[in-house]
Amino acid sequence: MIRKLAIVLAIVPALGFATACGGQSGDDGGKVKVVWWHGQTEAEGQILKDLADEYNKSHPGVEVDPEVGTTNVDEMLQKVQAALAGGEPPDVAYMYGSWSSTLADTPKVVDLSSMVKDPAFGWDDFWPAAREAATVDGKVIGVPSVVDNLGLIYNKKLFDAAGMPYPTKDWTWDDFRTAAKRLTDPGKGVFGTSYVVTGDEDTVWRFWPMVWQQGGAILNSDGKTAAFASPQAVQSLDLWRAMAVDDKSVYLDQNGEKFLPLFYSGKVGMEMAGPWAMRDLADHNVDYGVVPLPGYGGNHQTISGPDNWVVFDNGSKRAQAAKDFLAWLTKPEQDARWSLGSGNLPIRQATSKLPAYKKFAEQFTGADAFLANQANAVQARPSIAGYPDISAKVGDAIDRALLGQETAQQALSGAAAEADKILAKG
Amino acid sequence: MAADALTMRGRRARPRVRLMPHLTGWGFVGPATLVIVGLSIFPAVWALILSLRDDNLLAPGSFVGLQNYRDLLDDPDLRAATLHTLLYSVLYVPGSLIIGLPIALALNRPIRFRAFYRTCLFVPYVVSAAATGILANFILDPQFGIVNDLLAGAGIARQGFLQDPSQALLTLVVVSLWGSVGLPIVVYLAALQDIPRELLEAARVDGAGAFRVFRAVTLPQLRPATVFLVIWQTIDALQLFDLVYTTTKGQPLDSTTVIVFYLYQQAFQLFHAGYGAAVAYALFVVTLVVSGGALWYARRGEAPS
Predict the structure, then answer these.
(1) Fewer C-beta neighbours within 10 Å, C or N terminus of chain A?
(2) Is Signal among the key words of this record (chain A) (predicted)?
(3) Is the CB of B291 inside 8 Å of chain A's CB atoms?
(4) Given an 8 Å threshold on Cβ–Cβ distance, is B249 in contact with A84?
């Protein structure tokens, strides 16, 4: 591994050397170049390539160059780290929302606030939670590339077989627990629901809606101490602990890659999942329905994990060309082709009024439910530099509780103490 | 060295063409030198500088002196990761030798289909750790894996394996052993064939039984191979990463977070590249000390004989 790490570290300065020798590239026969690392492959990549071709045709002065960057977006930031150290970052890259605070501290990331302030851009038409997640201390670090939210998807066949009514939009978490318990059938290897216990953000973000639904928060309003160890949050985690440990109705997914395939094959009755699952659900011919997350006291808040197109500074000419391109790309007509074409929710509300959306909603069961659920995505995770560290501690805490190693109270209090330490360091 | 030797000879014979042998020599070693400097020494120096900085490779960062190294001493997660690595090494290194030697002994006997068995046992070693990990994930899945189906068929309770915090590290040791026991087998096989036949025959003539021959002749003759394997496998164990990455990602409950996986998390997931580099350097020093110590111990043991 040291050897591999050494190679990674070697490539970084080597790239710098190469660019230092190569001089400034990007002016290609008078055309301004926009290198676009979109991280999409296959059908999704093709949609973006077509869009780039079309843009290049109608904008002769610009050459948008779509490149995959990396086939796994998990590694995009690493790739860009290396490219930045080498002085030749892409002009536009696809970035997860959880990286926003780190990106905001990166000098080479272009602040897009002036662009989104332009009324022609239509920033107000983007989903509020997505706008909030893209804004860090007043700096707009990107524009949404994909929006999603967590809802509850359920397998109708399993509910029918158990003779149970389908989940409704008014469900409480207790209803959820009862149903999960009844759906569970160890003899057939069927679980009521599942939870991702990778201990990373995939574990953590599924928990925050329950905190928010009860009026709780992740951090106190001054942002200096953790607020997630409240009695309400403890009670929520304890519900999951009881389901996993006492009821044994929860499939605990160790690497986050099995829970959806198990749902497709009828081994899990209900999943907290997002619109990204709709394409696979259609491919597997699953008879399913979608409702908002269960709630507390009629509050059904969810979480949105929007991803962003982030612009990197390669000189003002290229940055401007990249901004112009993004302004075009996020127009409802293009949004319909990219978002709907790739099986995602529209990133703009106006897109959902287009005929293309109607077709999309007919094609994918639950699209309307997920779209309506966007209204429940009202809060975002704190955009602070320490969030990844805090998230790691909370992820461990949730895992410990769900695996029955600690009570919910012990786990969350411990994580809150660690979080306070991280926040104190600044 | 090669260049120097050529120069010396060239100087004595024809003093005038002194430059040519130089160039020829450098021509031979140049590409390799470039590769070593570029891919090993340069990044090593760069990582050393990085380990003295608070840096995430994105923002400018700052020089913090030895702070990262001071933080190492007071990091409970790193301490846990170190314990996991130690436990893994203590099981893996002797385990691979103890399993490898008998198999090598068996394969050294004139049995039928010997080449076939040898190939079979070496194939897992050639397979990448990533493939081994993915395979292990499938067959050891607690709910849907074939191993648990077999256990259930035999009336034994289903096990959590990689998903049970108390079993995961042990399971990883077993999977690694499966994947890498080919190396000790091959090394021991080669060493066994190097043992002079006279020695074995002399021992037998002197009336030694099979076990006595093994203990008094074979085992001492295998000593250099054993030393090599201990050092090699230790370095391998201390740097365990790919198998963890493809199976447990350090879970459940961080019970399989080993040092290299921890530094990867710090550097690339939590954006503490400087701290990650410091962990890497600390591990490098430990590896150096351990291998040096093993070598010194082995040499010291050899001296009297």
Answers:
(1) C
(2) yes
(3) no
(4) no
Distance from CA of B117 to the nearest CA of A (A): 30
Domain that holds residue A250: 151-301+386-425
Q: Answer whether B260 sits within 8 Å of A403, measured CB to CB.
A: no
Comparing A307 with B300, the larger pLDDT belongs to A307
Average pLDDT score, chain A:
88
pTM for the predicted model, two decimal places: 0.79
Cα–Cα distance, B302 to B305 (Å, whole number):
6
Answer CATH for B77-302 from 1.10.10.10, 1.10.3720.10, 4.10.410.60, 2.40.110.10: 1.10.3720.10
The pLDDT-based confidence of B15 (bands split at 50, 70, 90) is: low
Contact A254 B163 (CB under 8 A): yes
CA distance B250 to chain A (A): 9
Let me know if residue A20 belongs to a domain: no
Distance CA A205, CA A150 (A): 9
CB A152 within 8 A of CB A292: yes
Cβ–Cβ contact B26 with A under 8 A = no
Q: Is B236 part of the contact surface with chain A (CB cutoff 8 Å)? A: no
DSSP symbols for A223-262: SSSB-TTSHHHHHHHHHHHIIIIII--EEEESSSSSHHHH
Confidence band (pLDDT; 50, 70, 90) for B303?
low
Burial of B117 (0-12, 13-18, 19+ CB in 10 A): middle
Tell which of B172, B253, B275 to mutate to test the A interface (max A CBs under 10 Å).
Answer: B253
Structural tokens at position A249: 């109705």
Which residues of chain B does A7 touch, with a Cβ-Cβ cutoff of 8 Å? 39, 43
Q: How many helices (H) and strands (E) does chain A have?
A: 19, 13
